[in-house]
Amino acid sequence: MNNDKIKKILLSLADASLEFSVILSGKKSSKVNGIYKTDTREIVLHNRNFSPDQTGENLLIYTAIHEYAHHLHCCARGGNLSAKAHTSEFWAIFHELLDKAEKKNIYQNVFTDSPELEKLTAFIKRKFLEENGSMVKEFGKQLLKASDLCDKIGGRFEDYVDRVLRIPKLAATMAMKMYQYDLDPSLGADNMRYLAGIRSEDDRSGAQKALLAGKSPDSVKTALKTRNASALNQNEEEQKERLEKEKVRIERTIGTLKTRLKEVEEALKNIPQ
């Protein structure tokens, strides 16, 4: 595995609008496996951190893809990165690259190779994510009942939440929405909380389907953010077009009225006093 081969692999996953280089440092680092240098657009990989076998090569490719995601993130931002590089936008780019790499057999998803880990994963999802999601959803159902009872006795539900249950109002609101929106408990409470915060039913449904299909939360959030931004830009363009057409109509009307005004003024001049 050399610099050119790694770069070719990365470009097979996604094109980059800005030139970059891959450098195998020939060194071992106790701090990082790789680094992306924004100023020089260099992906530096400390290749002595990886064993010379297939496992080590797989980890090397994983690191290279991670640093390449930084470069693509940099490209998307016009060549500049903020001080906080590991944003949701970055993780969405990285996860998309990994998905492509797995489909192309460039990177091997090791999480599916261990029967013991797969068994533990199934247990974690069932015992903690799904059960926790179900519990929070049921909590929301009971809070809605409490809200109705507060109304019947003339009490403020917000006061009940604050001083009786002593929980944050936002937590109570999110739990109730999780129940009202009938969110899938298998996603876990954290993902359900994110979904409960999405106002649009279509957006919420699409985000839930994406999560259930295996997309990472960062990928789903970034995709929704991008789609909404695109829709906003489209609406602004449509609004601009409507206003420009209205401007033309108004100017035409003003021109017609000015002409008529002159005609009326001339007619008045010709009328004997």
Structure explained in plain terms:
The chain folds into 2 domains: 110 residues, Zincin-like (2-Layer Sandwich), CATH 3.30.2010; 101 residues, no CATH class. The chain is mainly alpha-helical. Strands 1-3-2 form a 3-stranded mixed sheet. The protein is 67% helix and 4% strand. It is built from 9 helices and 3 strands; from the N terminus they run H-E-E-E-H-H-H-H-H-H-H-H.
Mean pLDDT: 92
Coarse morphology: flat
What is the terminal separation in angstroms? 102 Å
Number of strands: 3
Oligomer: single chain
Low-confidence stretches: none
Rounded to the nearest angstrom, the radius of gyration is 30 Å
Return the structural class.
mainly alpha
Please give the order of strands in the largest beta sheet: 1-3-2
Residue share in β-strands = under 5%
Helicity range? 55-70%
For the record, the CATH architecture of the largest domain stands as: 2-Layer Sandwich
Count helical runs.
9
CATH class group of the largest domain: Alpha Beta
Can you tell me the number of structural domains? 2
Task: Profile the largest sheet.
Answer: 3 strands, mixed
CATH fold-type name of the largest domain: Zincin-like
Which series of helices and strands comes N to C? HEEEHHHHHHHH
